Amino acid sequence: MKNQSLDNLQRWMQSVITHPGGVEAGLATPAARAHLEMMPADIEQVIEPSHSQSSIERLSIYAGAYYTRLIECLQAEFPVFRQTVGDDAFADFAIDYLQRYPSQSYTLAKLGEHFVAYLRETKPAQPGAANWADFLIDLARLEQTISEVFDGPGIEARSPLPDSNVPTMNADQFPQARLTTVPCLRLLALRFSLHDYYTAIRANKEVSLPQPKDSWLAITRRDYIVRRYQLSHPQFVLLDALQHGQTIGDAITCAAAIYPGQLDQLAADLQQWFHIWTAAPMFEKPFPV
Prior knowledge:
mainly alpha, three-stranded antiparallel beta sheet
């Protein structure tokens, strides 16, 4: 083995210690053997044993450290999820997830991008577990969205729509106008009311698990701080329509169809909503005049 290049040895070791089935399984994979033809019985030619550990055991230390680091990264991305299920259960989730979705990116920022999909794929079929599983899926969706907003494009170097430009929301005056939402705006429709629960857990406060109840959130970023806004259903429908390019008039019509009050009250609410959303900010281009 003396003629092996350092590059080959490094790539072989990476293939072995990152294999989800463990070191011995990793040794037998085509990926590892493409760099170094090595079976478990021959490993002492590359990794010397110590007085207390075999070559496999020594290599397994690196494999364990690799997965420990990945689990720590997932804990950082899903802190409320981890606190909700507990450390041991989270580690079980994380290990199973990493076996199904091994890290493939140069950056650990993408490590958890399939975690919500994994939770959906492994959701228990028993009716009694459905609410708990759905709650965890919603919680993971919220935390994943917060991570995406934090790491993604924002408007810190742009000029958002000034609050003074918000017009009196008269659908007759601006029926054909369109708004451009900021690139960091995300809208979430959830099956559980997570806004207060998430805030309480992040503050290390004791709080009961929320019961199933439709809720809606807008998540955006200002000055590199991620902010959450709880929405009513009409507010969500209105923002969603605007984000998908509908005119202000059409978006208001969609919201009005499910608004529970009188239309004159809707007109007053619209003015208030847009002032809040503009200050958030959720829009970056001025209203046409």
